[in-house]
Diaminopimelate decarboxylase (Ruegeria meonggei), 421 residues
Amino acid sequence: MDHFLYRDGALYAEDVPISEIAAAVGTPFYVYSTATLLRHFQLFDDALDGTDHLVCYAMKAASNQAILKTLAQAGAGMDVVSGGEYMRAKAAGVPGDKIVFSGVGKTADEICTALTGGIRQFNVESEPEMEVINAVALELGVVAPITVRVNPDVDAKTHAKIATGKSENKFGIPIARASEVYAHAASLPGLEVIGIDVHIGSQLTELEPFELAYNKVAELTERLRAEGHNIRRLDLGGGLGIPYARSNDAPPLPVEYGAMIKKTLGHLGCEIEIEPGRLIAGNAGLMVSKVIYVKSGEDRDFLILDGAMNDLIRPAMYEAYHDIIAVQEPAPGVEQQPYDIVGPVCESGDTFAKQRNMPPLVPGDLVAFRSAGAYGAVMSSEYNTRPLIPEVLVHGDQFAVIRERPTFDEMINRDTIPEWL
């Protein structure tokens, strides 16, 4: 469920007409619903009710500080994967003891920043990384809390580019080597082993892969405890998918996911961490764009928008599907027609949809890309010297620009010309 609905023939974000935002900030732009963000976070928090747990929002999905602050005030922790994300979370007021640091390539500087500013734990991905965390911690005179990410070799049944739990993926250590790696970690004086981390991929639409992985984690927990390790926290990652097409079967609900976690791991008495990102932010955001031209080709018609692949790269990168709707609600029974929906960037890949049925549209009409709140603005670029598009947050009948569109002068003046030119 989201809070983007038609009223009297016009699309609204909560209590604000989309057309009103477009008139104020121009197109294209991203718009997020506070009510949807909070509802989705609460669904996960409620799903783990009765357990010792923390829902850590995976902020790589959408990392604007206004979004982070909204979720942090509701009780969310944060899952970060870079020093920049760590600093962004801190800037949004998230305390260090609610920040989990994941990612395969943490540098010594990033580790130092987190240990100095406070960290809940590092999710360690490799033995070389373990050695670096230990060295930095000893230099600072502190002890670093860690979990070790294990790779359970489970097929997440998702897109190859977002699968992370198979043996050929770069993430984690093979679960078969866990005893050896944990013994080594326990021997390092700058580390405190507190738990296990696992994350098998993103946009999962079935519970079975999670259950297979979590059963392996349960067995590993008991084995490591028997080997003398105080395993008291299980970080289960994120990955629960969302329906990008309204016609698709809905993925499992957070309450079903929570029940499965309790069934597979509840008997261990561990604190549970989960790291949802897409399901919290995805359906909480739209990208709104304007039709520039309607072009007739030899065998098809094109809607050419002012939004492009640099603004929303998922269709070009992942062949991802987004529902695209007219901001002005079509009249009942209006005949739809197929269009290729494209942007103005000079790439054939700048195509959002092919032969998508839409109501007849004309230049100046607005369209909205649903489920664009996750991996939209955060993956955008200034390719073709196109400005990053504004982000807008709606709260009831109010809206605020939470990232402004840069001017061309601001973009161009970032360049520095060498003195010999």
Notes: The longest strand covers residues 285-296. The radius of gyration is 23 Å.
